[in-house]
Every structure is written in C-alpha cells, then in structure tokens.
Amino acid sequence: MRLSDYVVASRAVVPLAATELPAAARALFECLVSAGAVQNPEVLLDRVVAERPEDIVAMGDRAFLLHYRTDAVKDIGVAIGTAPTPICRQLGEEDRQCAQIVLLIAAPPRMAGRYLQLVGALARLLSRPETVEAVLAAPDGAALAGLRAFRDAELPEQLLVRDIMTERPRSITPDMLARDAAREMVRSRLGGLPVVDAESRVIGILSERDLLRHLLTNYLGDTGSAKTPIPSGRVVRDVMNRQVLCVSAEQPLAEVAALMANKEVDRVPVVRDGKLVGFLTRGDIVRKLIGS
After folding, report:
1. pLDDT at 240 over 60
2. How confident is the model at residue 93 (pLDDT cuts 50, 70, 90)?
C-alpha cells in the first residue's frame, strides 16, 4: 500500500484556519467525521479534547502528529491540514512548539501494526525539506492529496522487534532492595525494569504500577497516610510481577504491537534463548518510528 491510499482529498483541510493546536485538532476531527471515518465521534472527541501528552508528537518545526488508538473507528483514518502561519502548542509559561502541518491519525487497536507503519512512513516523508515545501505549497486539499510524494511512498516492509527494541537494557535482580530499585526507576525515568537471575534469565518485571499496588495493599492505613513507604528489608522479589509477557527479537513488530495493545501491556522484555537481550515499550515504538 502507498501513503496516497490514506492521504485523500476529502480528509485534507487547506487552509487550516487555526493558530493554536487544540483548534487545529478539532478541525481535523470534524473533517474525519464529515468523511464518515468515525463511528463513535463522542469517544474520539473526548480523546482529542483531553490533549494527553502521549497522543501528541512534534516533528521538529515541521509538523504535529496527533495519534489515537481507539475503538471509535473501524479502520485507520488520516486527516491532514496546512496553515499559512504557524500553529502553536503551549508547553509552559514561555515554551511553545509551532508548525504549519498537522496530522491526525485514528486507528482501532487491532490495527496497531499497520498504524505504526503508517506513522513511520509519514514521519520519514516529512523529514525531507522538499516534501514539506511541496505540502505547504499545495493550494487546496486535492492538490495536497495528489502530491507525487504521497503516491510514490510505499509503507515500509515488515519491521521486526530487533529493529526497534532497546538493546542491553537496564535490569535489576530479585534480591535488590525494593526502595533502591524504586530510586533507580526514578533516576532513569523508566516506568518499569526487567528482573533477571544470575544467568540473565527474565524471572519478573517491576513497574511503577507494581510498586503502587504493593504500597496500597500493605502500607497505607485507613486514613490514607503511609506508615513507611517501603521497609528497608523488602526486596524486589516481594514486589515484582512474576507473570511476564516476553517476546522474541525476531517477531514481527506489528504482531507484538497488536499483542501489547490487546493485553494492555506497556512494556515487554525481549529474550533470546531465555536470556534478556532487549526491552520494548509502547512509547519506544512511537518515538523511534518517528525519529523524535
């Protein structure tokens, strides 16, 4: 398949009459609804309005990518818009991100693999200055959708887990103090760490969710105040989740992405011959595919 199968005139808004990203997102949402691509507009609108950071990616100063995995659509829907002046997103009191191209992609969870391939192809295409220039020069939606860049761009060949995973990831041992493991997660800004034995075999995983569940179950009193966060003698094996979904480095990324979405798993250890060789998270997949 080619990008021109997804970037079509009926879902292109030129010019995009917005100066702030929320207004641009709303306009592209309405475009998808008008094109009949959304079966449950209320559900998708709730996601758009929420402006969750994980749903919004800035491709430098070239484009914003708004991406949603949701049952509000039956098939992948893409809307694209360009503005004559930069559309901006406020990040703080003085920090703003701006771009003139905005993309909105909505995909059902079952199509996670194709969705990731589409995101990657669009990101690579928009990394080329000549393509960005041609997109911004298009006078209307028909001209934009008819650009040769979209006609010639084929979706990438099947990616494997090894193409995306983090190699030689951080890991912890079951005998490590739980509070030290928690500090390691905070310092590394990681939401979870694989737990391995002396032979590097994965025997569990420790996540922020596991730590929180342990605290709520064992150390919060009726008043909600903590007696002691994590006792000094408590070790990782007391807190970790022993039910771990592991994947192979040679598995198709589309297959693993769909599995993670369906199982609602945020991260998976990658093993070879039973030993840890990598780590894959849903955030890694998106960030690495778009090169951000």
Report:
1. yes
2. confident
Domain CATH for 275: 3.10.580.10
213 and 119 housed in the same domain: no
- Let me know: does 292 contact 199? Beta carbons within 8 Å: no
The residue range of the domain holding 180 is 162-290
d(CA 173, CA 196): 5
CA separation for the pair 287, 292 (Å, rounded): 5
Burial 98-125 (b: 16+ CB within 10 A, else e): bbbbbbbbbbbeebbbbbbbbbbbbbeb
Helix (H) or strand (E) holding 107: strand 96-107
Q: pLDDT at position 222, please? A: 46
Which tokens go with 49? 């309005």
263 vs 77, higher pLDDT: 77
Residue 26 phi, psi (nearest 5): -65, -40
User: Residue 73 is part of a domain; what is its CATH number?
Assistant: 3.40.930.10
The string of DSSP codes covering 60-106 is: TTTEEEEEEE-TT-SS-EEEEEEEEEEEEEE-SSS-EEEEEEEEEEE
pLDDT at 246 over 70: yes
CA-to-CA distance for 274 and 105, rounded, in angstroms?
A: 37
pTM over 0.85: no
Contact at 8 Å (CB) between 31 and 13?
Answer: yes
